[in-house]
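User: Fold this, then the next.

Assistant: Folding the first:
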Amino acid sequence: MTAWYFEDFTPGAVIPTVRRTVTEADVMAFAGLSGDFNVLHTDRVFAAETQFGEPIAHGLLGLSIVSGLMHQTGVINGTIIAFLGLTWRFTGPVKFGDTIAAEMRVRAVKETSKPDRGVVTLAFTVTNQRHERIQDGEFTLMMRTRG
């Protein structure tokens, strides 16, 4: 998919992402990068005694992967000016070996006082291979215009 400019975003438009499998190696790399070695993510014996019965990925790792999936669509490649903010909910666990994907829906577009940019809000629904919703939320982005 080619990059979209502000004018290309139409409220209601849906953009699916590719899928990605989350591995134990991803979780351990994220723990090392972030410094978050919470035993729920890194200790199989501890995690076996939790409601999940096994270790789960960090919620923020899932969110980071979703950001990468968005970039892989190509829609914002070279046309994004800034990531302005987000609202996000973690509604289910991401287990080692889960394959996740996101559906992006253009929720809102807003012109700004500067003609070279506009603000786009994308709503995300993130599911696993069992079609269970595991995360959802919105990203607000500043995008270039064609002008």
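Now the next one, as you asked:
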Amino acid sequence: MKMPVIRHLVETQTVESLLAAEEALLEEQTPAFEVEGEDEGEQLTHVFAAIFILNHIEDHQSDFKTALREYTKKVRVSIS
């Protein structure tokens, strides 16, 4: 998971375009825009993170850093 890639997606894509990219990746197709990552799994992680962050920003009127912290907290809980 690379934070600069996630930030770029948050700044340049909409939730709708990210959902379309998620669907494309899940169907082993190429998304309509470039998603950086070493493999499809990392690309999907970046897309998931960007979707979560954009939704969190909208739902809680928060900024990118706060939403990113919430996402990383969620990831840490799911790992442990």
